[in-house]
Amino acid sequence: MTNATIRSMLAPESTRPQPIVPLTLEDVRRLSAMAFPRRHVVGFRVLSGGLCNANLKVSFESRHEPVVLRLYQRDPAACKREVELLRLVRQTVPVPEVFHAEPEGRDSVGPFALFEHVNGLTFQQLKKPNDVQAIQQASSSVGQTLAAIGHYEFSKPGRLSAGRTSGGLEVGAPYVEGPDPIPRILDTFLASANLERRTGAALASRLHDFVWSWAPRLPQLDDERNLVHSDFGSRNILVRSCEGKWVVAAVLDWEFAFSGSPLLDVGHFLRYERAARPLREPHFSRGFVEHGGKLPEDWPHVVRVIDLTALCESLTHDELPDDVVSELLDLIQATVADRDPG
What is the reported pLDDT for 73? Predict the structure, then answer.
């Protein structure tokens, strides 16, 4: 198990460190010309929200729509894997079109891809005006979209990688084998010195006891082999108004997708939902179930317990802003105490 198992970066965009972009305008023009040789690039800007990879909005002159140039700076293998995933799901899931990709890099530039620039707001941006009807409509569409993602099945659970020869996707080793995968995954994170320094020994011990007390009530996820996005949060879901109704325009950032249980994505999307003041519910879960998604008995509590793995994984990172640590700890403590987050 590594810290990349279940990605969960909760920092607001303003506090997330932005990746370094080592490209000039001439570099961007050269890379864009590989897909659009007759278009003239007039400028580019770095899109917010990137953590390790850089996303550039590239603008052309005249009538041409902008595109996104994505530089894979964290994991070079992620380029080919993400491109294969987008090509796999694009018939049933709203995702950006892939115009060109160089998984091995080219001309002294590491792996990169050129994607469609999808117009829309992130779900995070949609929430800020607190338009309840818009949030409810979009939440229903998000549930439907997540059900469509989960319809893709693989031969077994585990890490996904791009095929080395024939393309497509291959499933590697599972993250954990055997019964009680959630408690055992959580225990691997609780062994982290970074986590214990931030939680304190008492909370870490309480977390261990709490998740194991839930073990008999948690679904056995070791045999589930559906497509999991693994970063299914508000900033990776673009929405827009279409014919007077808010719908998902695109799901972004598939770098950490794997074969497993969709309940991980359910928990991530509902991480900030408050039972006392629901906004996304019951619209999200209804859209999910009506389009083929499956939820276990007592699922609202179950997915919160499962989501503890992602929250604790984040606390194992070497560097986290203090306000993010406080946010993570509040979410963890709220789950253990069965209360709404603060």
Answer: 87
Angle ∠(333,336,339) on CA atoms, nearest 5: 75
Average pLDDT over residues 277-294: 97
Q: State how far Cα 342 lies from the chain centre.
A: 23
Structure tokens at 222: 């070791």
pLDDT in tens, 99-110: 999 999 998 899
CA 112 – CA 105 distance, rounded (Å)? 6
**Distance, CA of 320 to CA of 29 (rounded, Å):** 35
Question: Which residues are registered as beta bridge partners of 13?
Answer: none
User: CA 61, CA 43: separation in Å to the nearest integer?
Assistant: 9
Q: Per residue in 126-138, is it b (16+ CB within 10 Å) or e — as a string?
A: bbeeeeeebbbbb
Specify whether the CB–CB gap between 303 and 173 falls below 8 A: no
Choice among 18-22, 252-256, 298-302 with the minimum mean pLDDT? 18-22
